[in-house]
Every structure is written in structure tokens, then in C-alpha cells.
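Human: Not sure, check this?
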Amino acid sequence: MTQTLPAASAEAATPMPTAAPPGGGDLLNLMLDGQPRTRADLIELTGLARSTVAGRIEGLLSVGLLQPSGQSRSTGGRPPTRFAFNPRAKLVLAADFGVTHGRAALTDLTATVLAEEVSDLDIAAGPEATLGWLVDVADRLLAQVGRRRSDLAGVGIGLPGPVEHQTGRPVKPPIMPGWDDFDVAAWVTERMGVPVLVDNDVNLMALGEHSVVYPQVEHLVFVKISTGIGAGIISGRRLHRGAQGSAGDLGHVQSPRGGDALCSCGNRGCLEAIASARTIAQELDPDHLGGADASRLVLERLSHGDRDAVAAIRRAGRDIGEVLASCVSLMNPSVIVLGGALGGGAPSLLAGVREAIYARSLPLATGELIVVPAQTGEHAGVIGAATMAVQQYLAPQSVDAMLANPPAHAVVL
């Protein structure tokens, strides 16, 4: 008896979708390591046809993202041309705003700073005054390096308060009056004519420190200790922002020693209420108003060997370490970086943090953990802001869109 097979359904008869071949953006992604490659190298790496690779290369050359980089050794006949990523094809404007300062920098597409300007600013002056300074600085910096606004790929901005990353709007920032729900990205885009990304300053410090110092580290926590306390989290080599962008709000975690201490957020017992530079300054000098110069006062006392200052900063380190010990148990990072005015400039604070973490965390979590001061120093924020903008500009889908609609004039340097 012959068995009749059931008719194939329409779904089963439909060919399975095949993955799209790597586009120009994917090919460029291979070149971001800076290593020059020939057409033959790229054919071998991608598995694409010779004609397809040639077309991808021509497109990337036309927009300036690739450039010829000498010739490879000949195996007979004409030596093949090598190509390399061109980091000067476009520039990025990066800004890092603190409570009392603004730092703006122009970088290339590797987030390398080419020119910068720093100024005393009061973030409480409001968004239009602060961002207006950035727009003015942009033209001065571009003039310094002999480029134009049309050479900008984008703008990255770090702000000292909670930011909803998807919209670029600050959300009830406690030390930024007048900024709540202000559309920072739209305001700057309207004046600069390029895409603008905005994030919390600590997130960008984490991104900057990771990209420059620890690019191979999978899990890192960057802690900024200054007028306030915050953390930026790198997980799986990616910045972790959380659902609304508030991940890492370390300063408003309740501290074991927090008790009834009133925090600027309105709650009591927060870590920031007992361990920030503002609190320590008021403890050392009851007449101090706890303003933005709090870090400077504490560091001056430490530099003169003030015993009260040393004891206070060590105690603050232990308080911060106790909260970080919970983070170590929860996240198991391999690197914790301390930055900000106090994090990078107070060895006794670092000692207190280490003491508490290693005492309260399990050996498995701390066996290979290092707790270190930041190495990018005052540039962490602008490097991170530039990295954020560069990552968006060079994302494969962004590059593919650019190649589909190339600009009228490409800059190739």
C-alpha cells in the first residue's frame, strides 16, 4: 500500500529567510580596529563576492570613512592597495557639564581630543545660558582645527543629574533648577544641525574610562564621588542605563549608617547624605554652605594633613564601600573605578572603600576584583560623550543609511 504524504502547508512551502549579506556598515565595523586591509583581505573576512566588496569599499571611500593606506607586498603583478578607517572623516563635539564648570571638546571618530575649552559655569543659570555657551564654543574649537560645522557627525552631552536617555530630557534634577523636562537634544540640534545625544555625566565617565583604559573588561562600575555620588555601570562591555535611564543612582541608596540624615532628594538615610563632599565639608566647617566648592575645601584640608579631614574621608570611604559591597554581590564586576574630585584625589577614601568591600563581600566575588582610581581624570566625561556620539554615527545601520543617501560633499583628510 502506497502512503500518500500530506500536502505541504503554505507556511512550510515558503523558503526560509536568509540573512542579509554584510553591508557597508558591517564592513566598516571590521576596519575600526585601525588595521589596514586589502580587498582580498576583506573578501576572505566577509565571504562576499569580489564585486560586492569593491562596491562597499567605493561607497565608504566616497563618504571619507575609508582611505587608502599604502600598498601591500606584491605576490606578482601590481601591489594591491590597502585601505584603513579614516578617523578624521568627521568630528564630534563633546560636552561635560558639572555644577560649576563646562568642558567642551572636539574629537575625531576615535574619541581622541583635538581641541578643548573649559570655563567656569553655573548649571543653575539654566539650560539656555549653559547650552548657549556650548554652541559658541563649538565655533571657536572648529576654527582652531580648521574645520566647519558641516564636518560634525554629532554632539554628545553629559549633565550632572538624572536624564531620560531616549529623549535627552533631564528629569527633576535636584541641583539643576530650570532644567526639568527641557528638550536639550532638540535645542542644540536646532542650532547645530546635527544629531545630539544626552546622558547622565557619570554614565559617560564610565563609558570614557572603559573605552580608553579597560576596553576588554566585561563588567565595570565607575563611581563618581564629588558634590554628589553616582555610578555608571558597564555590563557585557555595554553601558547599562536601565529601563528609564536611572540605573546607577548610588547616592540615593540607603546607607547602613544613614540613619535620619536628610538627603537633597527629600529622603533620609541616603549614602549621599552622609558621604558626599557636600556633607564632609559641612562636617569640617559648620559655616560652610555645602556648595559646589565642597570638594575643594575637603581636598585642601587633606593636603594640609588635617586629621579630622582624613578621618572623615576614610569614614566616607567605608560608607561608600558598604553600599558597593552589595553591588559586588549583585553584579560581580571585575573593576570598580573611583572618579570625581574626591574619588581621584583622596587616597584615604580609596582605602576606606577597599576595606569595606573586601570585608563584606564573598571571596568568590572579590578574588579578581580591583578597586582603583580613574585614569582618564578630568577628560573621562568628554571622552565618554564623544564615544556615545561616535557609536551612534558608526553603527552599521547608520553607515548603511549614509551610503544610500551620501552627502553632497565628503571630507577626506
